[in-house]
C-alpha cells in the first residue's frame, strides 16, 4: 500500500513536471487538515502551518495533496491561535518531503497571487509574501517564478 501511494505521487510529479504545479494523485487530490504530518514515508510530503512566527503557537498540517482553499480550516493543536481560522492567519511554516520539491503557500485561493516556497525539509520562520495573508497550498516540483524561496 505504501509503495503504491509513493508510486502514484511520483507519477503525479513526473506528469506535472512542465506545469509548475505538481498535483497529488486523484486519491489524495485535496489534503484535509490534521494535527501532524504522521509517517512521511507513507504520504510523501506534508506542510505544517503555524499561527505564530518561529513555528510557534497552534498548528495545522496537510499531507498527501494540495489544499486549494483554507476556508473553514482551523488551527488544531494547543497553543496561541487554537481554533482560529487558518486562512489569512499563518505566520510560519515547515515543509517535509521525501522528494526534492517545494511546498508553496499562496496569497489567494487556487494557487494564485504572491507566494512563498519552502524547499523540501526546510522551514520558514516568518512567511514573507503570505504572512497572515495565505489562502492555499500546493506541492510543486520546482519553485514557481516570483515566489519568495526558503
Which parts are unreliable, with pLDDT below 50 for 5 consecutive residues or more? Answer: 1-29
Radius of gyration: 14 Å
Q: Separation of termini?
A: 32 Å
* Rough outline: globular
Number of helices, where a helix is a run of at least 4 consecutive DSSP H or I residues:
2
Share of helix, binned: 10-25%
Query: What is the topology, as strand order, of the major beta sheet?
Result: 2-1-3-6
DSSP strand count: 8
Helix and strand content put the structural class at mainly beta
The helix/strand series, from N terminus to C terminus, equals HHEEEEEEEE
- Biggest β-sheet strands, sense, barrel: 4 strands, antiparallel
Strand % is: 25-35%
Average residue pLDDT: 84
Describe this protein's structure.
The structure is a single chain. This protein is mainly β. The protein has two helices and eight strands. The protein has helices spanning 2-15, 40-43; strands at 45-52, 56-63, 92-97, 102-108, 112-119, 122-124, 136-140, 148-149. The strands form two sheets. It has a four-stranded antiparallel β-sheet with strand order 2-1-3-6. Strands 7-4-5-8 form a four-stranded mixed β-sheet, with no helix packed on it. The longest helix is centred in the first third of the chain and has 14 residues, at 2-15. It starts with a helix and ends with a strand. The model is unreliable at 1-29 (pLDDT under 50).
Amino acid at each position: 500500500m505504501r509503495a503504491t501511494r509513493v508510486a502514484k505521487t511520483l507519477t503525479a510529479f513526473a506528469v506535472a513536471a512542465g506545469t509548475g504545479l505538481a498535483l497529488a494523485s486523484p486519491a489524495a487530490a485535496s489534503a484535509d487538515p490534521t494535527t501532524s504530518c504522521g509517517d512521511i514515508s507513507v504520504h510523501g510530503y506534508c506542510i505544517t502551518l503555524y499561527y505564530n512566527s518561529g513555528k510557534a503557537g497552534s498548528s495545522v498540517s496537510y499531507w498527501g495533496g494540495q489544499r486549494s482553499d483554507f476556508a473553514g480550516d482551523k488551527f488544531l493543536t494547543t497553543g496561541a491561535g487554537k481554533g482560529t481560522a487558518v486562512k489569512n492567519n499563518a505566520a510560519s511554516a515547515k515543509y517535509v518531503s521525501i522528494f526534492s520539491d517545494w511546498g508553496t503557500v499562496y496569497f489567494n485561493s487556487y494557487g494564485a497571487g504572491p507566494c512563498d516556497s519552502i524547499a523540501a525539509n526546510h522551514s520558514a520562520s516568518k512567511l514573507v509574501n503570505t504572512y497572515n495573508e495565505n489562502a492555499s497550498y500546493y506541492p510543486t516540483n520546482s519553485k514557481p517564478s516570483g515566489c519568495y524561496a526558503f
